[in-house]
Amino acid sequence: MWLFNRLLPKLIRKGRLTVITHDGQSSSYGDGDPAWPALTMRLHDAQVARDIVRDPRLGAGEAYMDGRYSIEGGDILDFVTFVRANRPWESGSSALERKGMAARAGAALVGRVNRFNQRRTSKANVAHHYDLSDRLYDLFLDRDRQYSCAYWTDPANTLEQAQTEKLGHIAAKLHLSPGQTVLDIGCGWGGMALYLNRTCDVDVLGITLSEEQLKVARARAEAAGVSDRVKFALIDYRDVQGRFDRIVSVGMFEHVGPAHYREFFRTCHNKLTPQGVMLLHTIGRINKPGTTDAWTRKYIFPGGYSPSLSEVMKASERNKLMITDVEVLRLHYAYTLREWYERVQDKRAEIEALYDARFFRMWSFYLAGATAAFESGGMVNFQLQYCRDRRTLPITRDYMADAEKALRAKG
Are strands 203-208 and 230-234 parallel, antiparallel or unpaired? Predict the structure, then answer.
């Protein structure tokens, strides 16, 4: 318990966290504020505390996966969001401290190593997450199987409505005209491509590195009778041939890796027509460049990294892409993740039958941690619009609102 006594008083200041060891010792932390949660963490072996203190994120995640501790008075989502809310991103000293040169250099080196994503490993990294059983994603995603941040015009909306409105929100920013060609980089299971074709009368090529996603996307286009206009391919974005009037990429940039950002934007510039427009939707961090935590890299997104806005701008501005609109979605992914988490909990029996109890706990911890990062941590979503010619788009944003309203009417 002495290990936790060194760590937890710094982490838990509001509310109450009681820790009960495997041999029955009990300690409590926090001020007991009744407006905050009161949770109990029960440790099931003598080594849990040491493993968590040694590496809090990796240790806490692995110990929970292995069933070495449990949460009472709530669940893992309650626990993780409670801990993170005690130290929100907005908190801290009013005077920001400056790190020494050695500390900055060390952090930068670790960041470069952790964020490096070689081309030859990209497909394997994508497969690690997206080539899981189709049945898993059917259990917690919306009917259109959108596996990215939804757009909540009202937090009371259904997940299905919020995901459809996300598609319209993005389509409006693409400023589409009938007959145009669109490249969808990281097309997922085809929902965006099919939506753009149906609502905007455009031809779309969706590309992915996931074989499972490709099969589903092609089957959906065939079933809709639009496979002549909505095509899907298993190909790296760098190998696509031809030019397109529009490029859209939703939830794929997180897998590019900072070492390849300039190459990504150079490729997009060269794939756009001179009057082309691009919309990039990505998870991002509202502070400076950092690293992906060890647990997420190991179990969920190997090679994945969410960029700071400065990293994106540094790469895109060197490739003659003009930034024409920036939107920061602050809480939208938190709402989305809570919906996914609740659906996963409701489908526990099916998920454990599909995989096992350890996988269920892993997936729950992943969604809980992500929710906390968007509710209290430094994660947001960026929607960045680019063009090659400054005269391509209207000079005010009114066209976006008008188009979005029309698209909502189409449903």
Answer: parallel
Structure tokens at 153: 């015009």
Numbers of helices and strands, H then E, in the chain: 17, 11
CA–CA gap between residue 208 and residue 131 (Å, rounded): 11
- What's the pLDDT at 348? 98
**In angstroms, what is the C-alpha Rg of the chain?**
22
Contact 215, 188 (CB under 8 A): no
Q: Set out the domains of the chain in order of their start, with CATH numbers.
A: 2-85 (no CATH), 121-410 (3.40.50.150)
Strand positions, DSSP E, 143-200: 181-185
Give the model confidence (pLDDT) of 175-231 as tens digits: 999 999 999 999 999 999 999 999 999 999 999 999 999 999 999 999 999 999 999
Successive 10-residue mean pLDDT values, the chain, 411 residues: 82 96 95 97 95 93 97 98 95 54 47 52 55 85 96 97 98 98 97 98 97 95 98 97 98 95 97 98 95 93 93 94 97 98 98 96 98 97 97 97 94 75
Average pLDDT across the chain, whole number:
91
What is the crossing angle of helices 191-200 and 159-174, to 10°?
60
SS3 225: coil
Alpha-helical runs (H) found in 25-100? 48-54, 56-65, 76-85
CA 383, CA 312: separation in Å to the nearest integer?
Answer: 11
How does pLDDT run across 376-399, given as a tens digit for each residue? Answer: 999 999 999 999 999 999 999 999
**SS3 assignment, position 388:** coil
Pairing relationship of beta strands 379-387 and 272-285 according to DSSP bridges: antiparallel
pLDDT tens, position by position, 4-24 = 888 899 899 999 999 999 999
pTM of the model: 0.91
Is the CB of residue 40 less than 8 Å from the CB of residue 18? Answer: yes
Query: In which residue are the tokens 């505390």 written?
Result: 49
Q: Calculate the dihedral angle through the C-alpha atoms of 193, 196, 199, 203, rounding to the nearest 10 degrees.
A: -90
Q: Is 127 helix (H, G, I), strand (E, B) or coil?
A: helix
Quick one: tokens of 316? 């895109």
Q: Which residues contact 176 (CB under 8 A, 6 or more apart)?
A: 182, 196, 200, 202, 246
